[in-house]
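thoughts on my protein:
***
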Amino acid sequence: MSLERCDWCGNNPLYVRYHDEEWGVPVRDDRALFEMLVLDGAQAGLSWLTILRKRDHYRRAFDGFDPELVACYDDRRIAQLLADLGIVRNRLKIAAAVNNAKAYLTLRDRHGALGPFLWRYVGGAPRQNAWKSLAEVPAKTPEAELMSRDLKRLGFSFVGPTICYAFMQAAGMVNDHLTGCFRHRELA
């Protein structure tokens, strides 16, 4: 017997594993959340499957997404990343990752840990949605718009409302698995 899944994951084994094991699982670890923000920004205009295929290489290329290290990348290091075939070689996206590491450090100094700062947009607990079809799932919400504005005020880039909502979905801040999907019940 096969399990019913959200339509978006299709049948690619990497995508199915991501859907079944990661997407929508609540994440509160600061480094993991920083990684997710950077990768969601890198995904802009591309398929998430493209980023998933490159994720392990991204982790190596960006020093495990250690914000302290990434914030110190200089022009030479950025040039190396622009030549790295294992990541999306887009100057603006790479610069955004470095910029966001700096903004992360500013946020941490002003507001404390990243996790509690981001989770406050959903009151600290995953929002349980009950979408029956992909057509019902919004591309952004008022909470994502507020998160986007606040992050931009702190200096983050590539954090528009649509990227923020995709981030919220992936980080388990909202349960947007469709009601017919086996993961919806598991994460409720």
